[in-house]
Structure formats: C-alpha cells, structure tokens
UniProtKB/TrEMBL annotation:
One of its GO terms (molecular function) is metal ion binding. It comes from the Bacteria. GO terms for biological process: folic acid biosynthetic process; tetrahydrofolate biosynthetic process. Pathway: Cofactor biosynthesis; tetrahydrofolate biosynthesis; 7,8-dihydrofolate from 2-amino-4-hydroxy-6-hydroxymethyl-7,8-dihydropteridine diphosphate and 4-aminobenzoate: step 1/2. The keyword Magnesium applies. The gene is folP. Catalyzes the condensation of para-aminobenzoate (pABA) with 6-hydroxymethyl-7,8-dihydropterin diphosphate (DHPt-PP) to form 7,8-dihydropteroate (H2Pte), the immediate precursor of folate derivatives. Keywords: Folate biosynthesis, Magnesium, Metal-binding, Transferase. Its cofactor is Mg(2+). This is Dihydropteroate synthase. PROSITE patterns: DHPS_1, DHPS_2, PTERIN_BINDING.
Length: 309
C-alpha cells in the first residue's frame, strides 16, 4: 500500500522525525500531606476555586466554606489532582485587597477543605508571603505566586521554610519588551534565582508562562507557540489559560462558552511539554488531557524523562 508521495507505509520508520521535535518531561514527586503528586507519567490537573466576589467567570459562587467544599470535592471526583484556592481576583482592572481581607477569604475555606478531605492537595494562589504562610499552616501544600516571588520579598523564604513546591508565574509591570520571548525567559530566570538564593530546593520550583498577564492578544498567542522554550529551562511548566480573554476574543464567545478553546490551548501546551494544566471545567478538560497523555506519554514518544535536579 502506497502513500500519495509514493512511499510505502511499511518503509516508514516507527519513530519518524517528520512528526516533529518531542518535548522534555521532568520527573518529580511532591509529598503533600496524605497525598503524593508525581510528575513525569501523566499530566496533572489543577482545579480553580476562587473565593472572591469579583473573579471574571465565577466570582461569588464559592465564598462560603460549604459551597467551596462541595465544589472542591466535585472537581476531585471529576479528575483534579490539585485545588488552587485564590482570594484576590487577578483579572485586569481588579481592585487589590488587603492582606487581612485575603486571609479572611481563604483561610476558613482551606481549613474546611483540609478537615473534610485531608487527601486533597491544595495550592494557595497569592503573592503575599503572610497569606501563603497562614495558608500552609491551615492545610495548603503548594504556593502559586502570580508575581514569581517578586512582589513580596519574603515569599521565597516562606517556600524555603516549609519546603513546599512554589509556582513562579511570569508577570511584569513594564509591557515594553525588547525581545519578547527572551525577556520572558530572563524574567523567569530572575524569579528562579530569587527562590534558589532563599533556599528553595530546585526540585520544588515550577514555572508558569503567565498567559494573560502583561501580554496583549498577539503576545498571548505568541507565547503559546513558544512554550517549549520554557520547558527547556530545567523545570516543570504549568499552563493556565482557562477561559482567558485571548481565547474569548479569538472565538468571540463569553467566558462560560470557551471550553473548546481552552482544550485547544491545553493540548498545544502538553504537546510542548507542559506538565500541569490549570482549568475551571475539569471533566471535559480531563478527556482532552487523557487523550493527549495517551499520545505524549507513550513510552516510544518520550525521548527524555529528566530525573536529576
């Protein structure tokens, strides 16, 4: 049987180079209370739980602990590996909240979820060191910092003190990029250096390209095409695109109607080596991610599984 180009299917190599460069996956294990998260064998799913009145797509729904517990349990049942709890909206134009207000929002919810279901892995979405500290004491296991340990000089020290994983997201005040991708790499390297100097173990660092932060529509699309540049830095990469404006703008749809757009970005991210996907809609995105994993985590597909740190 011949292809349109005249070559027989039997003559094709089993692992043909025409299918492109394959990504690097990092192997990590994180002890999180009663649970252990393992990277390197499948994509992990982070479910979003906003306990805010003004988040762009689900503000006000899960402020009460009972509602938050119910939603967290449902997300885990649907396939979430991590529940990411945030008490301050990061949407464009949001009003910053005080440390006291943020603590008032997140600590009761974290404590309630941890008491009701201690097996659930919790991350705290904050850039304030004291909020992170109190969240870890209340039952959180991971810090997710949208300012990459640059907003609060004590954040890296908290991560080092607790020996917990920390997610360093790319963000900046100055939108005047000189060399866009190189600047992002340089900015993330600064965050990495801050955390390493504070004593954070290399294996506890996770990177996030910061899609939707300090980037316009075209720049968001461009970083989506260049995620493999970040996976080459030596750290696992988390991708958070769920319901974001660049998807809504591209498809001209509201936030609650862009599951397919989010799924497309998740698939593209996994194909470039992203190992954690942060989403609102767990069940449909898990189906997409499971299909991607069947392809990307096939033993013949992984060309480099990095164990050393």
């Amino acid at each position: 049987m011949r292809r349109s180009d005249g070559r027989t299917f039997a003559s094709l190599p089993e692992e043909s180079e025409e299918f492109g460069v394959r990504p690097r996956f990092y192997e990590r294990s994180y002890r999180c209370g009663e649970n252990t998260l393992t990277l390197g064998h499948r994509t992990l799913i982070m479910g979003i739980l906003n306990v805010t009145p003004d988040s762009f797509s689900d503000g006000g729904k899960y402020i009460e602990p009972d509602a938050a517990i119910t939603h967290a349990l449902q997300m885990v049942a649907d396939g979430a590996d991590i529940i990411d709890i945030g008490g301050e909206s990061t949407r464009p134009g949001h009003d910053p909240v005080s440390q006291e207000e943020e603590l008032h929002r997140v600590i009761p919810v974290i404590h309630a979820i941890h008491q009701a279901a201690p097996h659930i892995v919790i991350s705290i979405d904050t850039y304030k060191a004291e909020v992170a500290r109190q969240a870890l004491l209340a039952g959180a296991h991971i810090i997710n910092d949208v300012w990459g340990a640059k907003a609060d000089p004590q954040m890296a020290a908290v991560a080092a003190e607790f020996g917990c994983p920390i997610i360093l997201m790319h963000n900046r005040h100055d939108r005047n990029y000189r060399s866009y991708i190189e600047d992002i790499v340089e900015d993330l390297q600064e965050s990495i250096d801050i955390t390493l100097r504070a004593g954070v173990a290399k294996e506890n660092i996770i990177l996030d390209p910061g899609v939707g932060f300090a980037k316009d529509h075209g720049e968001n699309l461009r970083i989506m095409r260049s995620l493999d540049r970040l996976t080459e830095l030596g750290y696992p990469v988390l991708l958070a695109t769920s319901r974001k404006k660049f998807i809504r703008t591209t498809l001209d749809l509201p936030a609650n109607d862009v599951i397919e757009g989010t799924a497309a970005t998740a698939a593209l991210g996994i194909a470039q080596g992203c190992q954690i996907i942060r989403v609102h809609d767990i069940a449909p995105l898990k189906r997409t991610i499971d299909m991607c994993d069947a392809i990307m985590y096939s033993p013949k597909h992984i060309t480099e599984l990095v164990e050393e740190v």
